[in-house]
Amino acid sequence: MTDTKIQVVKRCVNDPTATPYDEVLDTYLKSVLVGDELAEKVRDAFDAYVFLSYRKKDRRHAQRLMHLIHENRQLRDIAIWYDEFLVPGEKYDGAIKAAFEKSSLFALAVTPNLLEPKNYVLREEYPMARDRRQKKGDLQIVPVELYEEERGDERTERLKLETVYRDIPPIQDEHRPREMNAALLQALSRISKKENDGSARHRFFIGLAYLCGIDVEINQARALEMIQSAAEDPEPCYDATEKLVDMYRTGDGVARNLGTAIEWQRKLCAQYRVAYEAQHDPDAHMGYGTKFIRTTIALSDMLREAGDPDGAYAAANHALAFGGLLTGEVGVREVDRDIALICNRLGGLCREWGDIARAAGYYQRSLEIYRRLARDMGTARARRDMSVSLERLGDIRRKQKNRDEAQMMYSQALDIRAALAESQGTANARRDLSAILTKLGNLRKDQGDFDGADEHYAEALKIDQVLAAEQKTPQARDDWAVSLVKLGDVRRKRMQYRDAVELLSQAVRIFDENAQTTGSVQYRKNLASGLEKLAKAADAFSQWEWAEKCYDRALDIREKLANDFPSHATRHELATCCFMCAEFHRDYSLMARALGLWEEMLPRHPEYEIYVKSARRMLDKLR
User: Fold this and answer.
1) Helix (H) or strand (E) run with residue 106 in it
2) CA distance 473 to 471
């Protein structure tokens, strides 16, 4: 077995100048997640490669030299190979030789440490560079002396350096940047550089290199400048605009800002619209129209996320109106899919507003499209899409108290999903099956058929429990806990109180773990809901102290959520919790608070009238 050196990432290092573990790991992961194909395009965009040679103990000097080089705008498109850019697990010597072979310039970080005998630079790297320059003439060497004047660093003995490092070129001084840059530019002028076109796409790739640390140091300010320049070019790079959306939405290299992300998404929509107007010949197959529709749908989703439902509706409606123009460019089926997708978005927005009739119209239109696609194509995707529209339309019919139609819609969706789960066996297919079983259980519960609801919930629970064990993700565990709550609550309705308490207690433990490990708002909401259900079951089981603790904790969570994330939804949930706690404690002030919350929201949300009436009745009883 050979003794092979490999590059490793150490969490704990004694050298304070070493790149921090988190930064090294982040650089590596970003370069991996960028994808091999895109990373290769980024590397191809560099004008040339510089091999940075230095002693490990001079790391801070080498880092400074790297930044000094890239401060010159004429050199920003030059990649600087630095051994901390090695991929973890990569063979050290082999990687150095490979990087050396593709480099055209050898930058030597000169300090007194270079004079120590038998060091790696003296023994391996410099002789390799000197020999290649002499034999092939395709490598330039620029040594730069590095020292900190204010610290009084020891200077390197030039005469001794020239004796030890034979044929070394004139040594530059980092504190004389004009001469140093001139020497670097002169050296680069002698080598073969790639010709770049200065295009927006070229700037995007170089900006991406600085963002992800692909063969250069991470420099987020420079990355943002170059990517933004590429997005704002008269002939913009659409990938750059899209990347800016992603950066601001996720906080990648910039402060997370959904509003700024939305601004860039609007610009991306406008860019694709301009491109479509300039070139939409069906024979050219440019696809700008489809990209405009899909970026506009994404804009609608982002506006909805930002709490602007009117803007979200306007964007989705604009995409819908535009869809009819694309039939000749991409074909009926592709346009139909996009139109169905938009109809589902519009239906969801109308449903949030309480406009159930209009939501039903949008869902019906999407169902007709998906039914036709499923009949004509028969693909799993088309059948699954059809089942989603059936489910959503079933939700509307249930809301409208049309339970027979809801049952029919859900049952058709169930048949499709059961067949897909059996034929595919994927986690997504099984999760879809669990979801529709839960909807059928909800419908049975509405009808007072608790035995039928129990059967559907139990089937869903079996699926979700297996998925949670397989996937071990917070979301899979959350799905499992939700099924436990559903089944536990219906067991309470069936007066099987012991079973109900056991099921709901297990759900609360899962919700609690998820909330603590992730801090997710949704998991905290689910925890509060689980506690409320458990309190009801414990109350029915004569476990009053337990019920009191559950109600009090649920109320505390609801209070914090309403304060941290104020919205009509969180305030309604707080009011509901106040109502339940007031009933349990026979507390007049809590009931008055519930009433006050609902009355405040009533002018904009008339659907809360039923809660206002209930709270007033309960206040009369508590007087």
Assistant:
1) strand 105-110
2) 5
Q: How far apart are CA 97 and CA 576, in angstroms?
A: 68
Which three-class secondary structure state does DSSP give residue 152? coil
Instruction: Compare 44 and 365 and report the one with higher pLDDT.
Output: 365
Dihedral (C-alpha) 322, 325, 330, 333: value to the nearest 10 degrees?
80
* Chain CA centroid to CA 132, Å: 46
Overall fold of domain 21-34+47-193: Rossmann fold (3.40.50)
pLDDT tens for 491-545 read 999 999 999 999 999 999 999 999 999 988 999 999 999 999 999 999 999 999 9
* Tokens coding 37: 């194909």
Full 3-state SS string of 298-355? HHHHHHHHCCCHHHHHHHHHHHHHHHHHHHHHHCHHHHHHHHHHHHHHHHHHHHHHCC
Residues 6+ apart with CB under 8 A from 353: 309
What is the model's pLDDT at position 18? 42
Q: For 358-363, which contacts have Cβ atoms below 8 Å and span 24 or more sequence positions?
A: 359/396, 360/393, 360/396, 360/397, 360/400, 363/389, 363/392, 363/393, 363/396
pLDDT tens digits along 574-621: 999 999 999 999 999 999 999 999 999 999 888 899 999 999 999 998
Consecutive H or E run containing 110 = strand 105-110
The span from the CA of 204 to the CA of 226, in Å, is 6
Cα distances (Å, whole numbers) of residue 585 to 146, 531, 591: 75, 16, 10
Only one residue has tokens 């401060």, namely: 71
In three-state secondary structure terms, 8 is coil
Angle at 545 between CA 543 and CA 546, to 5 degrees: 65
Cα–Cα nearest to 157, from 172, 145, 167, 149 = 145
Q: Is 98 a residue whose pLDDT tops 80?
A: no
- Its pTM stands at 0.71
Contacts of 287 (CB under 8 A, 6+ apart): 329, 330
Q: Is the pLDDT of residue 304 over 70?
A: yes
Distances (CA, A) of 275 to 235, 271, 300, 315, 599: 10, 6, 20, 19, 51
Domain positions in the chain: 21-34+47-193
Tell me the Cα Rg of the chain. 32
Stretch 298-316: mean pLDDT, rounded? 94
Q: Residue 35 — pLDDT band, cuts 50, 70, 90?
A: low
* pLDDT of the residue at 489: 95
CB atoms within 10 A of CB 224: 18
Helix axes of 36-45 and 21-34: crossing angle, nearest 10 degrees: 100
For residues 123 and 308, what is the distance between their CA atoms, to the nearest angstrom?
65
Residue 269 CA to residue 46 CA, distance in Å, equals: 30
The helix-helix angle for 288-305 and 309-323 (nearest 10°) equals 160
